[in-house]
Design goal:
- This protein has helices at about 30-40, 55-65, 95-115, 160-175, 195-215, 230-235, 250-265, 270-285, 295-315; strands spanning about 20-25, 45, 75-80, 80-85, 120-125, 130-135, 140, 150-155, 180-185, 225.
- By secondary structure, the protein is α/β, with parallel strands linked by helices.
- This is GSCFA domain-containing protein.
Amino acid sequence: MKLQTEIPLKPEEDHIDYSSKIVLLGSCFSENIGAKFDWFKFQNLQNPFGIIFNPVSIENLIARAIANENFSEKDIFEHNGIWKCFETHSELASLDKAEFLQKLNNALLELRNWLYSATHIIFTFGTSWVYREIKENEIVANCHKLPQKNFKKELLSIEAISKSLQTIFDKISAINPKATIINTVSPVRHIKDGFVENSLSKAHLLSALHETTHQLSTKNHQLKYFPSYEIMMDELRDYRFYSEDMLHPNKTAVEIIWQKFSKVWIASETEALQKEIASIQNGLKHKPFNPESAEHFQFLETLQKKTNLVQEKFPHIKF
């Protein structure tokens, strides 16, 4: 008896290998998968502006990066002595104005360079709910704990999301037509919006993604969809796959989704190297009982030899 439904998956053609350059943008699930790319030392850039949940804010950053439109003083504000920007996550905030602008523009240049050279761009969209800053009438990526009265909450329509997605895909295709774009919907439920409201939000994202992908498939866009949301909701529906908040996938769930992603998107030829890198990574985390023992020095020498062999073949890999 089979006690679990399973999402049918098949390997894609444009595989990720150790020559690939991967950009990950979107919700916190981007960072879950990005952490796996980091661990196995794939070349990747993760959320240079922090976690961004909604497609309009992701569109704004993509457009700004491609247009090379630097952040200026009009794009930032001070709140409780800290400089912030409505287009980015609070993790970039700074006490120094000049330092903050420099940080934003460095991240912008980094994103621009990666968008031009990426082989794979992975978007994880989290929610259709957005907050509009009333004074400027602009959708923000983060409210930065400003008073609620400063914002109006609204649900993006399927049409509005489709329009943002089309802009994102068209702009990337114009500068990097060979890049494969992998879209997914975050399996993290935004229950603070409400249970029904969360379902509606995810439905809008899914409808817009599939509609836009279908419409643009005739325009030579390399658009793909990976069902991380569906895997979590159907295959991993048991609460043993959730963290303590009962909303986020736990370590086991992330590992399962990563394995499924790997089967679809990561070249099988990389498996031996991934195992070797994992061995090195675990070795680097090892804490000896006696750091001065001959056994430990022998262990370090063997580990260094393994590291050197990997770096000789792939100079971009750093431990």
